[in-house]
Amino acid sequence: NAGVTQTPKFRILKIGQSMTLQCTQDMNHNYMYWYRQDPGMGLKLIYYSVGAGITDKGEVPNGYNVSRSTTEDFPLRLELAAPSQTSVYFCAAQGEDSQPQHFGDGTRLSIL
Amino acid sequence: RKEVEQDPGPFNVPEGATVAFNCTYSNSASQSFFWYRQDCRKEPKLLMSVYSSGNEDGRFTAQLNRASQYISLLIRDSKLSDSATYLCVFLIKAAGNKLTFGGGTRVLVKP
């Protein structure tokens, strides 16, 4: 009963490096989301997708890219890591309209 | 006015006591409301949806007041395990089903 799976759980990057945070869900949900949460703060939406092939910007998209080639996968790409991107990243999936979102365990990313 | 406002707390609650807190929202187009629970360094988890008529789930009671644009959460007979941050969340269907999260109310239940 996996739900939403994120990998890796932890990562340390150097400034300027790139990486992809993976997110996959096995619930066949159309809607998927990426959030970041800085220490002591609320969640901020980075990007979201309402279905395969469709993505849109959230509140804080700068420095990130996403793709949604399949219903299951919604990877988040950091091209040029910056210290300001140190955060915890959560992926979430949602089924029908007005239903709650289900979150992955998160990826803790530090950029030094 | 912020889209959603919560008292960050912490609410220090004796074990067995009742605690209640509100969350106000500014967008009257908000259609669905939820309370999520987030433990330290963990992902948010759905605690309960909030229905217009109010709803209860065990020791937890949620209320929605559309006229005054707030939701509330009441926890009865608090347990040590209720210590967490409680996030109010609302959804606007017309905005692509995006959820808006409050910053959370921290609750600390002490023996």
Give an overview in words.
Chain A is mostly beta strands and 112 residues long. Chain A contains no helices and 11 strands. Chain A has strands at 4-7, 10-13, 19-25, 31-37, 43-51, 54-57, 64-66, 76-78, 87-94, 102-103, 107-111. In chain A, the strands form 2 sheets. In chain A, strands 2, 4, 5, 6, 9, 10 and 11 form a 7-stranded mixed beta sheet that branches. A 4-stranded antiparallel beta sheet of chain A has the order 1-3-8-7, with no helix packed on it. Chain A is globular. By secondary structure, chain B is mainly β. Chain B is built from no helices and 11 strands. In chain B, a hairpin with a 4-residue loop joins β7 (60-65) and β8. The model of chain B has no long low-confidence stretch (mean pLDDT 91).
Notable traits:
heterodimer; A: 112 residues; mainly beta; seven-stranded mixed beta sheet; four-stranded antiparallel beta sheet; 0% helix; globular; B: 111 residues; six-stranded mixed beta sheet; five-stranded antiparallel beta sheet
What would you say about this model in short?
The complex is a heterodimer of chains A (112) and B (111). Chain A is mainly β and 112 residues long. In chain A, 0% of the residues lie in helices and 50% in strands.
